[in-house]
Amino acid sequence: MIRKSIYFFMILLPIAFSAKAQKVKYKDLFILLNAKQYEQAEPFLKRYLREYDDNPNAYLFMGSIYHDKAGKNDILLQTDLMITNMDSAVYFYDLANKVITEKEINRNEEYYEAYSRRDLRTVKFEIKLSDVKFDLEKRIQGLTDRKGKVKTLIFQYQSSERAYASVMKAFITIQNSFPGLKEFYLRSDQKLMGDLKTIVMKYDTFLIAFNDYKATAKVIGKTGYNQVLDATDIQDFKKDGNTQADFTKDDLKIWDYKRWAMSSIDIIDKEVTPLLEHLISYDIEINKLREKLTKDSISVKSDLTQLVDKLLYTNLKKFDPDPLPMAVFGMKISELEYSSLLITNKSLKDSADVNLRISCVKSEVAAVRKIDSLAGHLVERNIQLDAENYVHFVTHAYGNLTVLKSLAKSTKDFAEREILKKEKEWENTMQSLKWVLDGNDSIPLFSDALQQNYKFKPLVLVEEDYTAGLHFTDSTATGYFYTVTGSHLRDVKANFPVDKNTFKLRNLPVTKGMSATDGKGQVYFVLLYGESKVEDKYPSTLAKIYRTDGLAWSINYSLEMLPSELRYQSDTGELSIKISDPSGGSKVVVIDKAGKVVK
Fold first, then answer.
1. Please, is 332 exposed, middle or buried when counting C-beta atoms within 10 Å of its C-beta (0-12, 13-18, 19+)?
2. Above 50 in pLDDT, residue 36?
3. How far apart are alpha carbons 362 and 358 in whole angstroms?
4. Is the Cβ–Cβ distance between 299 and 337 less than 8 Å?
5. What is the pLDDT of residues 81-110, one digit of tens each?
6. How many alpha carbons lie under 13 Å from residue 51 in its C-beta half-sphere?
7. 310 burial via Cβ count (<10 Å: 0-12, 13-18, 19+)
8. Which residues are within 8 A (CB) of 337 and not within 5 positions of it... i.e. 6 or more apart?
9. What pLDDT sits at residue 123?
10. Which residues 6+ apart lie within 8 Å of 446 measured at CB?
11. Taking the CA of residue 536 as centre, how many other CA atoms within 13 Å lie in the half-sphere pointing to its CB?
12. Average of per-residue pLDDT values in the chain
């Protein structure tokens, strides 16, 4: 029945009160108020109170309406409105409390039915003024207390928001101060360490404020929020850490700035700072070796081997894939290696062994080119920019950047001068390989000599072993044979007569030679022949030379076909000459150890 009354009342009440002159009847309005249909009843209750200011029950319900509104307001997003509604509720509860009387309750008992309770003495249901006032005072006190807690809560909430924003701002300031993580670590200084410690402090301040907020929220109860911190590690220095946090979300995602800052402090303290200090001490050790080499003129190669610090490079490479100090060290060490090599090679280059001298020069050319490459790389790189990561190193090791640049340039210039010098020395030494020296005679060891205006015309060249050919005095030819040693000075030498009618200077283009040995360097055979027939045969001269006794014999032969191969049988002492013609026919001519044709 009551629900039905409320339903019809909600339909008819707007119509009944639509006329401007129509007055609101409280007993009708009470139906909605008692059913807690506050939203529908509020405008009519306010109109009623503008006309009647002596109804305590109307004040009580007006307080209840604002009390209900405050309970529905978002504690974080509608804080001011919530507090305003609380204040309004207290105001109307206070008005009701001041004007309510026993007479009012007795006259309008139905309005206060909610306060009816059994009297233990009379066992009757009664409505007492004291109960109504106690309830109003309790409501007023409850709202006053809650208002204070809400203010505390919102202060703590906003404090945690501000604290987090502050720590984020501090992080972003650092983030924007460095191009990348490499620069962040390598340019670290006392200011950065202070900024990192500030982040830790600010983050702790944020946590304290947030935990206070959570504690207050727990005391208030039913705030509509239950934020739980979800801290994410900063993995990428340049990409992470700059997104805002939504403090109204229960899953409150934040960045763990404290862990990042403490980790960074730890890395800088334990790795970066000692590493940067070690760079200076390492440079000092290199300089000491230079002083030792200059003062004592001794090689420091073994010292350099001990100086090599692979761990230094490995540790530095963790922060910088191409560290400037290591480029400087590489250049300086390469120069010490080159200078040490010159000292070591000095006595070796006095050796008669041309190959040894060439090996020395070759190693020196390679060493000085290494200096040139490393110094060139250093000159070409952006030292100005790189040095920003190594201010401590540059300042303490070289005083200023200008000195370091000058060192790189002067080393590059030195390397270029040395390369020209060593390449010339290399060319001169390589020329020694082209000749065997016999007193004032130089016997060529290169085929191009046939076309040159040299007295010696090489027809047989076995690299680094022996050579043979024709020696012309005016137009007269004599056969020659020389072994080739490391010193390229005369060792085994033999001159032998040849067929003078065949081996003329004009016939040189059609004159050829071949050779054979016993494989032990004790017996040599040289066959010189013409490719033009004389009386339908090919003229040739065969010489046999012993290492110990020199020329054994030299004999002229006429061959039916051109020789294509020599083969010596050391067990019989016989020499086989394979001769062939263009059609594919061939035969073997065997010469005994005395030079006679046996078949």
1. buried
2. yes
3. 6
4. no
5. 999 999 999 999 999 999 999 999 999 999
6. 12
7. exposed
8. 301, 304, 367, 370
9. 66
10. 434, 458, 461
11. 0
12. 90
In sequence order, what DSSP letters do the residues of 519-584 get, joined into one string?
SSSSEEEEEEEESS-BTTBEEEEEEEEETTTEEEEEEEEEESSEEEEEEEETTTTEEEEEEE-TTS
User: Cα–chain-centroid distance for residue 343?
Assistant: 39
Cβ–Cβ < 8 Å for 469, 456: yes
Distance of alpha carbon 162 from alpha carbon 256, whole angstroms: 16
Question: Where do runs of H (alpha helix) occur along 178-321?
Answer: 181-186, 190-220, 257-267, 273-296, 301-307, 310-317
Q: Is residue 589 within a helix (H) or strand (E), and if so which, with residue range?
A: strand 586-591
Q: Is 143 helix (H, G, I), strand (E, B) or coil?
A: helix
Q: How many other C-beta atoms are found inside a 10 Å radius of the C-beta of residue 292?
A: 15
For residue 333 the two structure tokens come to 């060490």
Asked if the model's pLDDT at residue 8 lies above 50, the reply is no
Burial class of residue 270 (count of CB atoms within 10 Å of its CB; 0-12, 13-18, 19+): exposed
- DSSP 3-state assignment of 112? helix
C-beta separation of 272 from 186 below 8 A: yes
Spatial distance between the Cα atoms of 520 and 371, rounded to a whole number of angstroms: 44
Closest CA relative to residue 93, chosen from 59, 127, 142:
59
**Hey, how many other C-beta atoms are within 10 angstroms of the C-beta on 539?**
22
Total-model pTM: 0.72
Burial of 530 (0-12, 13-18, 19+ CB in 10 A): buried
Q: What is the mean pLDDT of residues 229-245?
A: 96
